[in-house]
């Protein structure tokens, strides 16, 4: 028998050190950025019109989407705008909004087809803070959640707990976080 640690003990020690490193790194990052923990679904408030909707917090998606119908692009005084309707699936409350068009985005779908979607900036309240979020507009009525918040909206702000839902009420203290 050789002196020192066995291969199994070395492997176990290495795994333990790696696990400690991951936990420490995650904790330090969370403290540095003061990240909030959210469930994978949260109720958010759309400040334009004071409408609340359920949002899927999807760390697998880069961009955010909002269920919208009657999407119409138009020009006003030479500037590009989008008019659209948002409906709360629970209350059936509807809100028609007009927003400046930030850009159009080409989304490649899972079936290989692509869509051209308008992108707007929308004030959204999440966990007591107001965030200006870029969202693309698409009919999501066949999907479970009317809003999807992707990584760009959650960056430096949120940690998502995949085992929890609705950890924060959809209120806002009007402290702007962009």
Mean pLDDT: 83
How many beta strands in the DSSP annotation? Answer: 13
CATH architecture of the largest domain: Beta Barrel
**What is the helix fraction of residues, given as a range?**
10-25%
CATH superfamily of the largest domain: Acid Proteases
Side by side, the strands of the main sheet go 2-3-11-4-10-9
Give a brief outline of the structure.
This protein is α/β, with parallel strands linked by helices and 178 residues long. The chain is built from 2 helices and 13 strands; from the N terminus they run H-E-E-E-E-E-E-E-E-E-E-E-H-E-E.
Word description of this protein:
This protein folds into 2 domains: 1-34; 36-177, Acid Proteases (Cathepsin D, subunit A, domain 1), CATH 2.40.70.10. With 178 residues, it is of the alpha/beta class. It has helices spanning 7-33, 151-154, and strands spanning 36-39, 41-46, 51-57, 64-67, 69-76, 79-87, 94-100, 103-108, 114-126, 128-138, 147-149, 158-161, 172-177. 17% of the residues lie in helices and 49% in strands. The chain is elongated and about 80 Å long. A hairpin with a 4-residue loop joins strand 2 (41-46) and strand 3.
